[in-house]
Amino acid sequence: MNNPGGIYFLSTAVVNWIDVFTRIEYREIILNSLKYCICKKGLVLYGYVIMTNHIHLISGRRSDVTVFSDIIRDFKKFTSSQIIKAIQENPQESRKDWLLWLFERAGKANGNNTLYQLWHGPTLRQDNHPIELEGDWIDQKLEYLPQQSLGCPE
User: Fold this and answer.
1) Own/partner long-range contacts of 144-149 (Cβ < 8 Å, ≥24 apart)
2) pTM listed for this prediction
3) What letter would DSSP give residue 15?
4) What is the pLDDT of residue 95?
5) Which of 47, 69, 79, 116 has the fewest CB atoms within 10 Å, i.e. is most exposed?
């Protein structure tokens, strides 16, 4: 994500492609974090979709923000900790032990984590698989993703 004015298609998935976002409360964490990143961190979001086990974003950054990858890193770190916490505290989560076991196992396999790991990239690394979009690619990807607004509250 080296081009400061670039627009990127990013994908990131839950480890083992686990269907975490079938639960509305976990999707809400993603949506609220995206809103925060837009309002407070300079994220520009052109389109997104939250699937059951991964997300796609078409995004960039405002010109006054220095490092786009920092926004994405912070987004993933925050959503990971909040989703893990929500799973731990959700008395209705029938898959709690299984989910936490899988996330803990993935975390132990990655020296960058202290306990749990929620996200991995499509290549099983913790990357975002960014693809810089130009010209017709932007329109093509925007046709793929629903146009939804996540603006800042007035």
Assistant:
1) 144/56, 145/47, 145/48, 145/49, 145/56, 145/58, 146/47, 146/48, 146/49, 147/47, 148/47, 148/48
2) 0.85
3) G
4) 97
5) 69
